[in-house]
Here is the input.
Amino acid sequence: MLSPNRTRGTPSQGSLAITIQNAMSGRAITTCYVLPTDLIVHLKQCVKAVQDVPEITLMTQSCEFLNPVQTVQDVGLKNGDVVLAVLMAHRLVATASSDGRVKTWDTENNSVEREVTTAPPRSLLAACFSADGHSLVIGSAVGTPTIFDAKTGEVKVKFEQHAGSVSCVDISSQGRTVVSGGYDFLAKVWDVETGGCLKTLADPELAQEGGGQPRTHKLHLLAVKFSPYDS
Here is the structure.
């Protein structure tokens, strides 16, 4: 646990001052004083002391997520650095409908916080948010996995088409890759920066059964999910 003086922001000999900001609003949450050998989890505890939320994820300003069990020096933090905190209060819920719209709900007030139209009516099949909440990935009957800006609804990245509807999507914890699955029996992994396909997940035995056509499963894909520890 953090000692009380560090939680209150009192520096000690050899300590580093790390400012933690809210990743969504950009507002400063607190400044923590930690030793280079302290674990990143100490920074999370510092945030917990002033922001009571069920889950906190920390990342650098370049959106690199910080491993809680690594030390401050191991992740390269220096005195005066700024760390971003994604505060997961589980207050917001996203819903996607065949009307082509994705709504973000505030469960405390039972109100719609934002609404984004991402696909033509009766075509939206899947949607998910990035870990920082800034991006929205959708799959639709159009067959093209797409990343939207979650606030403005503007298209950020459009990937190549599946040979059929895209029924499921997910984005990795670092936000670098997207995986999509479709009615073409395939799951594909995409590079967010370039928009290119990194890999098609194909089972060679199923390809032989299907006359040489690559397949991930025998039937349509219903779900895809990255491990939360994916890079």
Remarks:
- Confidence is low (pLDDT under 50) at residues 1-8.
